[in-house]
Amino acid sequence: MAKFDKIEVLQKIGATGMVPVFYHKDVELAKQVVKACYDGGVRAFEFTNRGDFAHEVFGNLVKWADNECPELALGVGSIVDPATAALYIQLGANFIVGPLFNPDIAPICNRRLIPYCPGCGSVSEIGKAQELGSDLTKLFPGDVLTPKMVKNIMAPCPWTKIMATGGVEPSRENLAEWFKAGVFCVGMGSKLFPKERIAAGDWAYITELCRACLTIISSLKS
């Protein structure tokens, strides 16, 4: 069962403005990454369903985070079908993210008051997702669609909450482009977790990078 309901999760995401996106098959390494982000101020984290037995890693992370990162809303990404969404919800996912929009996933999440954030590439997809209860939609791939699309969507549909993912970088210049365009938050993956830093176990670097990003985002939203 999810630790936080839909409103609480959206509040956490909106308050920080950033959702780290990460996957690793080694649960102990994943714990270190999650803790480093949490220590840096992150309160919503997306573990992606990208490897064999990823759900087993996730289940262990949820149990561990309940004690070590008590205010963290741990969600899952790369979900493309309702069966997989249901599996992760049963394991304690606080939110579900997808690279695409599958309308069959929405009822599964709505029934348990869990946010479903589908990947959308058009205004029509975003509108349909909102109609089915997705308060937050993911603009994906962000590096292809660019902040200009966000700005153009927000003009006629200012109620829209968008999470840009793909092409987001931990720099003031890049973050400013997205937030000035009107995103609700950003999802950030590889740029937040340089391979060499992960390999070296430099968790302090991850913590400081998260803290720096959240400080920049806070100044842009104020």
TrEMBL record:
What the entry lists under Pfam families is as follows:
Aldolase
Q: InterPro entries, from UniProt?
A: Aldlse_KDPG_KHG (IPR000887), Aldolase_TIM (IPR013785)
What's in the keyword line of the UniProt record?
Carbohydrate metabolism, Lyase
Annotated EC = 4.1.2.14, 4.1.3.16
Root EC class: lyase
The pathway that the record names for this protein is: Carbohydrate acid metabolism
One molecular function GO term is:
(R,S)-4-hydroxy-2-oxoglutarate aldolase activity
Annotated CDD domains:
KDPG_aldolase
Show the PANTHER family listed in the entry.
Answer: 2-DEHYDRO-3-DEOXY-6-PHOSPHOGALACTONATE ALDOLASE-RELATED, 2-KETO-3-DEOXY-6-PHOSPHOGLUCONATE ALDOLASE
Complex formation: Homotrimer.
Regarding protein family, the annotation reads: Belongs to the KHG/KDPG aldolase family.
| Protein name, entry field | Keto-deoxy-phosphogluconate aldolase
